[in-house]
Design brief:
Chain lengths: 288, 256
């Protein structure tokens, strides 16, 4: 709570900088527009106001983005192809499906890696190395490959979302499942617990803080994957398709509106996981 | 190479080889068409025969990656040090930095392409935005990582703020700086490649991937991905190597 005043000050400053930057960046364009219209008698304030309300500005002013967001979410029916709610829904669906399978696969892989020594030694270096590879480069290819099998629609995008989200989850979960210290593991041994009992009664509960931390990263990564996949396969909509269409037709306001929607979506996802994590960890008496 | 390093390397290498062999055998035995999955040998052949194209793509992309990486990491470090003296700015900026790290920043790529044109400058701009915030957040927490004992010692020496910063807190923050530098290698590659999906002069790894997918020459796509993977890993390995040299005193290296 202490940080509300500083945070709002910084946000206000950002807004102010944004308006100044928008006016400065758009002014040359607006000057040309005035010149083309044969207007020479404009004052500096005319120019400033006009350049903050252009149709295709270089940098749209915040109120233009807000107006566009309002128009495309509240004023437009959610079923319309122009509605941002419609496109956000498509992206959210792909993200959630992909994230679910990515998390399932990621956690499963982590359990296997932790419980099998051979897998740990042979697979883990590859999982770590794969973190350094720009795997998102694979996105366009996955779309094409799945197309060959007549798998279209949502599946390719969900696959890419799953693919991007499972790496951080595996790495985080391996760390988490290994977090019990030697003393606790020894205690389990003195109880003559089987490996699966150690896993379910000690390792799994101990890994929960890591679980929620890696879920947050995984959800954000899944959303990025879904958006990028939509850019490469834009015919059935989604926020990525809006980004691409906006960049084709120079509709900057549309790009920014899509960008803010994606940011809000990601923020809500991460906040929801954070909340679930806080409640769970509190009930399980983890130190906060 | 000593025996221990060999013992650590053998299982993953063997695993990789087995996967490659199974892949090759599977593609050949099942007659998988090249459009779906080319055999490793076909990808290797493509890689060898299109060295000039791949080199040109590599040079184009790496220019944006490196320029953006240095500007982004440098300004992140600088801003973190500048706001270090003001708890007010820290409390305002750091939550924002944490929030932004979870956002799909790659979405700014089309905007940057509009602002800075098709060439590598727009890719560098995307990379700057992607690498700035992880650096800011990491350095900020690194600067507060020096222990109270060490700070007290500096105070008994009557060290000034600048001296404490230079001699104690910045060196103590180095592991965090390198952590951000390592995360940012991957982010820089991703940012540059995705920015190229939105428009390039007709060269670059992201451009190559998106056009060759359109032509269904999947072996070329795989060859480009191999180059991107090797570049990304080498970039990361280089930073990790410098880290080892610069922070040899840190507990995680001393223990070995």
């Amino acid at each position: 709570m202490k940080s509300i005043i500083p945070l709002s000050t910084v946000l206000l400053a950002l807004f102010a900088i944004w308006y100044v930057a928008a006016a400065l960046m758009n002014a040359p364009l607006q000057r040309d527009l005035f010149a083309n219209a044969g207007r020479a008698d404009y004052s500096t304030s005319d120019l400033a106001i006009a350049s903050l309300n252009m149709e295709r500005p270089k940098l749209p002013a915040p109120h233009q983005i807000a107006a566009e967001l309002y128009k495309l979410t509240i004023d437009t029916a959610p079923t319309s192809k122009r509605s941002l709610v419609y496109h956000a829904g498509i992206t959210l669906e792909e993200t959630l499906v992909g994230f679910f399978f990515g998390a399932l696969f990621g956690v499963g892989l982590a359990v296997m890696v932790v419980s099998t020594r051979l897998l740990e030694r042979s697979l883990m270096p590859w999982i770590v190395a794969s973190q350094t590879v720009p795997i998102i480069a694979l996105a366009p290819m996955i779309v094409v490959i799945l197309n060959q099998f007549d798998i279209g629609g949502m599946t390719p995008k969900a696959v890419i979302a799953a693919y991007l989200s499972f790496f951080p989850i595996t790495v985080g979960m391996v760390k988490g499942l290994r977090s019990p210290d030697l003393l606790q593991l020894d205690l389990m041994r003195t109880y003559s617990a089987t490996p699966s009992q150690t896993m379910s009664k000690l390792r799994a509960p101990a890994s929960l803080p890591f679980f929620f931390a890696s879920m947050k990263i995984g959800a954000a990564a899944a959303l990025v994957g879904a958006v990028v996949a939509e850019v490469t396969k834009s015919e059935d909509g989604g926020l990525g398709a809006r980004l691409l269409a906006g960049s084709y037709y120079g509709q900057t306001v549309q790009i920014w509106a899509a960008l803010f929607t994606a940011a809000a979506l990601s923020g809500v996802l991460v906040a929801a996981i954070g909340l679930a994590g806080r409640i769970t960890l509190k009930r399980m008496a983890f130190p906060q | 190479m000593n025996a221990r390093a060999l013992r650590d390397l053998a299982p993953p290498l063997l695993f990789g080889l087995v996967v490659l062999a199974l892949w090759e055998a599977g593609v050949r035995l099942l007659g998988v068409p090249m459009i779906i999955l080319p055999a490793p040998s076909e990808i290797g052949w493509r890689l060898v025969t299109s060295v000039p194209t791949l080199t040109a793509d590599f040079l184009q992309t790496i220019r944006g990656v490196l320029a953006g990486y240095f500007i982004g990491c440098g300004s992140g470090l600088l801003v973190a040090i500048l706001i270090d003296r003001s708890p007010f700015l820290q409390r305002g900026l750091l939550p924002l930095g944490n929030l932004v790290s979870a956002l799909p920043i790659v979405g700014v790529a089309p905007i940057m392409v509009m602002w800075f044109g098709f060439d590598w400058q727009s890719k560098a701009a995307v990379v700057v935005i992607m690498t700035f915030f992880p650096m800011l957040v990491n350095v900020a927490s690194g600067l507060s990582s020096a222990g109270a004992m060490e700070r007290d010692l500096m105070r008994t020496y009557a060290a000034s703020y600048e001296q404490t910063l230079l001699k104690l807190r910045l060196p103590a923050a180095l592991p965090f700086v390198f952590n951000a530098l390592k995360i940012n290698t991957t982010l820089a590659m991703i940012g540059a490649i995705i920015a190229e999906f939105f428009g390039t002069p007709t060269v670059g790894m992201g451009f190559r991937i998106s056009t060759e997918v359109g032509h269904l020459s999947i072996d070329m796509v795989w060859a480009t991905i191999v180059v991107a993977a090797v570049t990304g890993s080498a970039f990361y390995a280089l930073v990790a190597f410098i880290e080892r040299r610069a922070t040899f005193w840190h507990a995680s290296y001393r223990a070995r």
